[in-house]
Write a structure and sequence with these properties.
The protein is mainly α. Helices cover about 65% and strands about 0% of the residues. The protein has 6 helices and no strands. The longest helix is centred in the C-terminal third of the chain and has 28 residues.
């Protein structure tokens, strides 16, 4: 089982870089305009929706690390704000990066002994499975964002 420090490192790297995939959320979405991010391709979520969705679940887990409260709904995870300018898009980024920094700091400090404990309730699995799931989930949607960006800007 990975340690809290290892998990923290993986979360940090998918957000800010340094992983072996050589892609990260910050560099990727920071190079996408709000117009591109808001554009919808038929049958796909927008880049904005995917970005918000990733952040939504990071915020849910951040609250568990901060307060021990698990509160979130899949049905709300795509309910992103209406972004109408580049500055609003960048403001969303700023909050995401701050939350990701805070998340990785708290995760790194988490005692390894808690990783096999229930994630607030045993029906949700363990801390380890939820944290690893967050990393996998972020990589999965990051790949979608990269492909959508290419579909929108190059085709």
């Amino acid at each position: 089982m990975p340690t809290s420090k290892q998990l923290s490192k993986h979360v940090y790297q998918v957000y800010f870089g340094g992983n072996w995939t050589e892609v990260n959320l910050k560099d990727t979405v920071s190079n996408i305009s709000y117009k591109t991010a808001s554009q919808k391709k038929e049958g796909f979520n927008s880049i904005l929706a995917l970005t918000y969705h990733i952040h939504y679940f990071t915020k849910v887990q951040l609250r568990v690390l901060e307060e021990g409260i698990l509160e979130g709904k899949d049905s709300e995870s795509y309910n992103h704000p209406n972004i109408t300018s580049q500055s609003e898009w960048e403001a969303l980024h700023k909050v995401m990066w701050q939350d990701a920094e805070r998340f990785t700091e708290l995760l790194e400090q988490l005692p390894d002994s808690i990783l096999d404990q229930p994630f607030t309730d045993k029906k949700y699995g363990t801390y380890a499975t939820n944290l690893m799931g967050l990393i996998e989930h972020t990589h999965y949607h990051l790949g979608q964002i990269i492909i959508l960006n290419k579909m929108i800007t190059q085709y």
